[in-house]
């Protein structure tokens, strides 16, 4: 019989339950001193309000790391995609058929849902039709 336990309490933040009132961009009135301190790292300054405590907080958002990044493409899980399977990979072909995949002679590729491709670990076999691969 399953036991039901209560979830652990959410950690409380020192600011409590606050609402953002104003967001200022670097250079606006109220940010100049912080801009001197943080320079190009300063993204914005926010004023947060805690009604329960009757407090106003001034917070900053800073850039602390920068790395190159390529945005991914969101692929719907049920989208059918072509994948490449070698001629001699008969066992894999049978697994693909059992998972609902089928051969598309025109594309000369196996077609399988993206969800199943991920589940089977075949992401590296997806044929990028836009690149002609």
UniProtKB/TrEMBL annotation:
User: Per the record, where are the segments of Pro residues compositional bias?
Assistant: 1-12
| Region entry Disordered, spans | 1-30
| The name this protein goes by in its record | Uncharacterized protein
- Organism equals Geobacter metallireducens
């Amino acid at each position: 019989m399953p036991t039901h336990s209560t979830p652990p309490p959410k950690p409380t933040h020192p600011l409590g339950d606050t609402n953002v009132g104003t967001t200022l961009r670097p250079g606006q009135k109220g940010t100049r001193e912080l801009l001197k301190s943080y320079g190009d790292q300063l993204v914005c300054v926010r004023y947060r309000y805690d009604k329960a405590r009757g407090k106003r907080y001034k917070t900053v958002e800073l850039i602390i790391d920068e790395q190159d990044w390529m945005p991914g493409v969101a692929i719907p899980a049920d989208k059918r995609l072509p994948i490449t399977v070698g001629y001699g990979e008969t066992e894999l072909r049978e697994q693909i058929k059992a998972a609902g995949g089928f051969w598309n002679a025109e594309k000369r590729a196996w077609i399988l849902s993206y969800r199943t491709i991920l589940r089977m670990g075949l992401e590296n076999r997806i044929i990028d039709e836009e690149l002609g691969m």
